């Protein structure tokens, strides 16, 4: 995953170890980290957004900062009203590092909550779209599914090409400061998952037959 605004290739690379993963493996911390990816915010603002107390969000924000996931946003906030922002980095999880029972549990807690947040984010966009609140963006946004028959090596190559595409756009858009963004620019979430289907599923499950399906938009 890429946190913060995508930026040039010299941005820091971070591979989460078990200690960092365990620190993130709390549903509220995952929600706070996700919320801050839209931009800096205070504990009070996040508490209102997430329906929690400011004392609780403040505590968990400090824990995220302690483990290097977020930091104070310079030049914003006064006194106790700190603005927090995500530490920009290409953050990756090496599943091989989570081989201990504690590591597997932490990965499961974080992974389940992260996937739930991604689904909720997409579902809320579709709700806004159906109610006519996203008419301007409806023609630009997309929700695509494809079902292909591929080897492990082919899937790996496909993911690498997608990553290169995202990197190019990251270099183009991520280099702009907040003041340089054109009017109408919004935080855009790009979700990408590519994985093998359940081998026990019937042939062609999810498609009209057993032939590779073209990408289609919902």
Automatic annotation (TrEMBL):
Record's compositionally biased regions (Basic and acidic residues): 173-183, 208-218
UniProt xrefs under InterPro entries: ArsR-like_HTH (IPR011991), HTH_ArsR_DNA-bd_dom (IPR001845), HTH_MetalResp_TranReg (IPR051081), WH-like_DNA-bd_sf (IPR036388), WH_DNA-bd_sf (IPR036390)
One of the record's GO molecular function terms: DNA binding
Residue span, HTH arsR-type domain: 19-98
Region feature Disordered, mapped onto this chain: 173-218
Keywords recorded for this protein, A-Z: DNA-binding, Transcription, Transcription regulation
PANTHER family found in the cross-reference section: REGULATORY PROTEIN ARSR, TRANSCRIPTIONAL REGULATOR, ARSR FAMILY
Name this polypeptide is given: Helix-turn-helix protein
Native source organism of the sequence: Georgenia soli
């Amino acid at each position: 995953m890429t946190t913060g605004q995508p930026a040039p290739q010299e941005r820091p690379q971070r591979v989460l170890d078990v200690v960092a993963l365990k620190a993130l493996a709390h549903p509220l911390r995952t929600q706070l980290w996700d919320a801050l990816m839209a931009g800096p915010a205070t504990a009070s603002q996040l508490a209102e957004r997430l329906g929690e107390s400011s004392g609780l969000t403040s505590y968990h924000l400090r824990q995220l900062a302690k483990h290097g996931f977020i930091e104070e946003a310079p030049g914003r906030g006064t006194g106790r009203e700190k603005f927090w922002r995500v530490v920009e980095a290409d953050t990756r999880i090496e599943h091989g590092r989570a081989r201990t029972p504690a590591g597997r549990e932490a990965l499961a807690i974080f992974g389940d909550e992260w996937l739930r947040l991604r689904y909720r984010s997409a579902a809320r966009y579709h709700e806004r779209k159906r109610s006519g609140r996203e008419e301007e963006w409806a023609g630009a946004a997309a929700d695509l599914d494809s079902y292909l028959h591929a080897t492990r090596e082919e899937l790996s190559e496909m993911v690498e090409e997608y990553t290169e595409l995202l990197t190019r756009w990251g270099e183009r858009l991520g280099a702009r400061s907040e003041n340089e963004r054109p009017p109408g620019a919004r935080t855009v979430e790009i979700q990408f998952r590519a994985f093998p289907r359940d081998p026990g599923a019937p042939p062609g499950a999810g498609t009209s037959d057993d032939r590779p399906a073209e990408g289609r938009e919902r």
